[in-house]
From TrEMBL:
InterPro entries: S04_transporter_CS, SLC26A/SulP_dom, SLC26A/SulP_fam, STAS_dom, STAS_dom_sf. It comes from Camelina sativa. This is Sulfate transporter 4.1, chloroplastic-like. It is found in: Membrane. Residues 15-57 are annotated as: Disordered.
Length: 688
């Protein structure tokens, strides 16, 4: 039985007195009669809306007070740690415990990086030496300014493809301008990363769905792999970021196919894949994974040196020595390169910062995303002054670095030293490296980026995200990288806007034997009360979604499931209760719309009640004058409190109707046994 139910004796006396009750007031369509059994309602404290209690319209103090307080608390050591994150691990370095692990990890990643860097430079349309340049200065700079202790930065396949695609329409790969633009691109990427890090704007990328990134990466990996097939086939193919021109050119040049590079490349690729998978599967053999690229290079170089096959193209002469300092010569093409710079910055945020945060959590230390982004930016800016093209964090090398138990940024310094030694002493040996060996390294690396497991997972879990994955990957494959990214991001934002403009709204019912109210679709056993609709809005209410919310509320007046109802039989909805605890924000447009809805309800004798608004929402509603309009007595702490009060109004109204009907049929004798029997009907209905 509801807390609001009354005994037969109470009801009889109530009806006998109700004839003197006044008509409904403007603020309450159903006004309860005088004395009823009291309902236990927790009083809701309304906020003070006086001018003295009103905060400034734009609370600058709230925005900057946190920063100001933090700056005042910072000591010199804190400032040093903020500007140079490397001092955080330098001060606590355990030489006996960490040194051996960092040395082994640094050497392992260095051995892996040398051949990969040259391969990725070729993918970017640059001479192999620029891959080594991009792996030298940025690594040392990142070790000082970067927050992650395990992230391995340098050239990566996806960024190399973006560089190649951006520069391909401006300059030919054989031109000096191509190299200059790649270096300028690194400078622009670094500037954007620093700006976003300083302004703490990394959160903007959160609006891009992970399924979009996965679809884009998978499609790009396929394009990268096909672009390297030319070194296996022995003839040139179209330079494009679209799959159709590449496949057409592969088929058109089939008559030029040569077996020697195909056999050598395939052999090296098989060896790379076997070593990679064995290294992943068995921890004691994990060194095979890091040694795989070097093994492929050594094997290919040995075959080329011994047998001199004329159909296998070699890397050729590579300049010896460290990169020299030089400032970008011209910024004429900076405007053209800005979109690609922004895209590479986005990749850095989504991939590099994501990897860094995951590794920090695994190794139990804190990492600030914006500080990490700033460190990557400084590494790219200073790297561009020493002939580097854009660098970012690598999935594979970071995983190897972490699996090798790297503890601090010293492992990165060791890797940088290995790259420096290679530039100083080993470049004469690199001229015998077969091009197909470098291509095999790239194909092996990007094969793991084709994330078909993610597609299967999305199909099973969320069809909408699977649709995003499919749209992004398809458009990237057939229409190019830029269009693929724009379409993917566009659909991702469209889904976000759709979810925001069409929030989830639930009709609540009472769970049997409790005072808890839950979604009647999720809990079929929950029941509602005749004449009362309880609605929960599971989102902030603002100008973009208030129309949708109003439409749904109108629907609920007639669309509530009658089979779950309990209580007195009534002909229409008398009360709409809004459960607002999930509503974190409400703007002025939404408040005005709610006022209009209240006035609309008022014309149909429907009372609006509001339950459990949070402090900010309650304050906004109070300042708008809506509390006085609706009436303070219609704001409640709990849904159950609102239901109790509304039930009393419904019962009182029902008794009025029954008394009028009885008087017309039997006269004015309200104490007759017939009327008492009539009063039993609603009670029996309430007790069910």
């Amino acid at each position: 039985m509801s807390y609001a139910s009354l005994s037969v004796k109470d009801l009889t006396s109530l009806v006998s007195r109700s004839g003197t009750g006044s008509s409904s007031s403007s603020s309450s369509p159903l006004k309860p009669p005088g004395q009823t059994r009291p309902v236990k309602v927790i009083p809701l404290q309304h906020p003070d809306t006086s001018n003295e209690a009103r905060p400034p319209s734009i609370p600058f103090d709230d925005i900057f007070s946190g920063w100001t307080a933090k700056i005042k608390r910072m000591r010199i050591v804190d400032w040093v740690d903020t500007l140079f994150p490397c001092f955080r691990w330098i001060r606590t370095y355990k030489w006996k415990e960490y040194l051996k692990l960092d040395l082994m990890a640094g050497i392992t990643v260095g051995i892996m990086l040398v051949p990969q860097a040259m391969s990725y430079a070729k993918l970017a349309g640059l001479p192999p030496i620029y891959g080594l340049y991009s792996s030298f200065v940025p690594i040392f700079v990142y070790a000082i300014f970067g927050s992650s202790r395990q992230l391995a930065i340098g050239p990566v396949a996806l960024v190399s493809l973006l560089v190649s695609n951006a520069l391909g329409g401006i300059a030919d790969t054989n031109e000096e301008l191509h190299i200059e633009l790649a270096i300028l691109l690194a400078f622009l990427v670094g500037v954007l990363e620093c700006i976003m890090g300083l302004l703490r704007l990394g959160w903007l990328i959160r609006f891009i769905s992970h399924s979009v990134i996965s679809g884009f990466t998978s499609a790009s990996a396929i394009v990268i792999g096909l672009s390297q097939i030319k070194y296996f086939l022995g003839y040139s193919i179209a330079r494009s970021s679209k799959i159709v021109p590449i496949v057409e050119s592969i088929i058109a040049g089939a008559d030029k196919f040569q077996w020697p590079p195909f056999l050598m490349g395939s052999l090296i690729l098989v060896i790379l894949q076997v070593m990679k998978h064995v290294g992943k599967a068995k921890k004691e053999l994990q060194f095979l994974r890091a040694a795989a690229p070097l093994t492929g290079i050594v094997l290919g170089t040995t075959i080329a040196k011994v047998f001199h096959p004329p159909s296998i193209s070699l890397v050729g002469e590579i300049p010896q020595g460290l990169p020299t300092f030089s400032f970008p010569r011209s910024f004429d093409h900076a405007k053209t390169l800005l979109p690609t710079s922004a895209l590479i910055t986005g990749v850095a945020i989504l991939e590099s910062v994501g990897i860094a945060k995951a590794l920090a959590a695994k190794n139990r230390y804190e990492l600030d995303s914006n500080s990490e982004l700033f460190g990557l930016g400084v590494a790219n800016i200073l790297g561009s002054l020493f002939s580097a093209y854009p660098s970012t964090g690598s999935f594979s090398r970071s995983a190897v670095n972490n699996e090798s138990e790297a503890k601090t940024g010293l492992s990165g310094l060791i890797t940088g030293i290995i790259i420096g030694c290679s530039l100083l002493f080993l470049t004469p040996m690199f001229k015998y490296i077969p091009q197909c060996a470098l291509a095999a390294i790239v194909i092996s690396a990007v094969s793991g980026l084709v994330d078909y497991d993610e597609a299967i997972f999305l199909w099973r879990v969320d069809k909408r995200d699977f649709t995003l994955w499919t749209i992004t990957s398809t458009t990237t494959l057939f229409f190019g990288i830029e269009i693929g990214v724009l379409v993917g991001v566009g659909f991702s934002l469209a889904f976000v806007i759709h979810e925001s403009a069409n929030p989830h709204i639930a009709v609540l019912g009472r769970l049997p034997g409790t005072t808890v109210y839950r979604n009647i679709k999720q809990y079929p056993e929950a029941y509602t009360y005749n004449g009362i609709v309880i609605v929960r809005i599971d989102a902030p209410i603002y100008f973009a979604n208030i129309s949708y919310i109003k439409d749904r509320l109108r629907e609920y007046e007639v669309a509530v499931d009658k089979y779950t109802n309990r209580g007195l039989e009534v002909e229409r909805i008398n009360f709409v209760i809004l459960e607002m605890s999930p509503v974190t924000h409400i703007d002025s447009s939404a408040v005005e719309a709610l006022k209009e809805l209240y006035q609309e309800y008022k014309t149909r004798d429907i009372q609006l009640a509001i339950s459990n608004p949070n402090k900010d929402v309650h304050l906004t509603i109070a300042r708008s004058g809506m509390v006085e309009l609706v009436g303070k007595e219609w704001f409640f702490v709990r849904v159950h409190d609102a239901v109790q009060v509304c039930l009393q109004y419904v019962q009182s109204s029902n008794l009025e109707d029954k008394k009028t009907s009885f008087s017309r049929r039997y006269g004015s004798d309200n104490n007759s046994s017939s009327f008492k029997a009539l009063l039993q009907e609603p009670l029996l209905s309430m007790e069910k």
